Amino acid sequence: MSTDQPHAVVTGATSGIGAAITARLLAQGWRVTGLSRSPPASPPAGYTHRAVDLLDPAATGAALAGLAPFALVHAAGLMRAAALGALEPEVARLLWRLHVDAAFQLADALAPRMPDGGRIVLLGSRAALGAAGRSQYAASKAALPAMARSWAAELVGRRITVNVVAPAATDTPMLQDPARAGNLPKMPPIGRYIDPDEVAALVAFLLGPQGGAITGQQIMICGGASL
To answer: Which residues are tagged catalytic?
Structure first.
């Protein structure tokens, strides 16, 4: 395997949007190290898996040992829905730990090791603008643009870009999560859910040479939901 291939670390690499991003990057000639709890059934060429629970800081730190990628994509996530009167503090902590605390740990470890010109992309959500019954989820995703802008300002001198890609309801297994039974996603105005490959294409662009002037931004793929 050529060491000239660009290397990306992708969390949540074996399911949903993370799997789509991984597949697209591999097809474009990247090497990908995937971080998730379960490995793929048949690891493709160019892919290396490191099994880890991102909710465990010690295990995450161990999984990052020796990695110095060109790009980091934090795509791991989960959704929980509940309205006021039924909010559970533990759910808020769970969402925050995965979406925010894990992102802090990942970037804090990997950004100093990245070459100048590297890339960081965090997977956000259109729900960060607010969504009835999803306040805990929305709050954890709303933190990501502030993190991205702060890191972008810190890293701009090294030409490392940091952005958030925020899709509306996307056609992934998360849509069938039983935890969403009481709060089903809204169909975007375009009449269909967002395709994971559409999200992956934007992420790949931001990681590529033409994405080098875009930093500190939250880019929504909302199918008209934000109109």
So the answer is: 137
